[in-house]
Write a structure and sequence with these properties.
single chain; 342 residues; mainly alpha; Farnesyl Diphosphate Synthase; two-stranded antiparallel ribbon; 16 helices; 1% strand; disordered N terminus
Amino acid sequence: MAIQRRMDKPAGIDGFAGFEGIDGFAMARRIDAANDDPDALRALLEERIAHWLDGSNAEADLLTAAMRAGTLSAGKRMRPLLLMLVARDLGCVSPALVDVACAVEMVHAASLILDDMPCMDNAMLRRGKPTIHVQFGEDVAILAAVALLSRAFGILSSSQQIAPVVRARLVTRLSETIGTQGLVKGQFLDLHGGARSPEEIAATNELKTGVLLGVSVDMAAIIAQAGDEVADALRAFAFAAGQAFQIRDDFQDGFGHDSSVTGKDVGKDIGKSTLIATLGVEEARRRLTSHLAEADRQLERALGKRQGTRRLVKRLFGSLGRPASVTVAERAYARDAGLLPN
């Protein structure tokens, strides 16, 4: 059963005063005025990220410039928006939501900088622009990623607007997401896993993609003080959405797309174990549709009929009920790759 909580004083908040240079009541009003509009929340998020990554000396400071380029470049902002919208659907309108979301987006940006490095995926393009190591050099890119991780934890641990016990849970949950049980392990398996079964591929996908979606909804549940049943449903939603996102990303890596459309390098998954290569196009497409349907089911279980989060998911993935069809472009690419008979 969904929790619906609207309070004069948001859950987990000690008070509004001294909100790191922004009046807490004003921030709360701006969040509320956004009215669950992803575009309005995104604008607020990016304004706050720019505040944390002060660019006043960016021209003279390559490190700051690299941090800003990696975090403020065009992107879907899926993870921080999920965090804010899920929390709002759970009844929390805390001004601290924006800063918690900023921390998650900085972790995501740091992971992308490292993923793109020559020793990793060796990508040249990200979000329609040269990758950070191409723009600033490998040394600056590595340091920018480390600095972003540090800044993310600094934001969480120093916020006086979140009760200490809640703040500790948020820091712990985010740290678990990054290390050898999360993003780091997922990237290692992706680089060194070799041939893998569909189950092993799904497990790697969960570590590479699902964990950041999972931590976003987990942190939303923590700050909104949601019950265990709601938190479990949100984790199930994040798992299904993460699997769907990774399969769709695998399709976009080559099936009828080019870098001018996707904004990033394509063909990087050639030779890797993906569900498309292992199971074929038709089964991968069927699983994509199945994961999207499961994500929608779990979202309704967690949030009831509240629509803020669902509107974002539908925008990201399109219709949740689309048939498991294969496009002409996908089929042609699959034949060329030897995944389908001529």
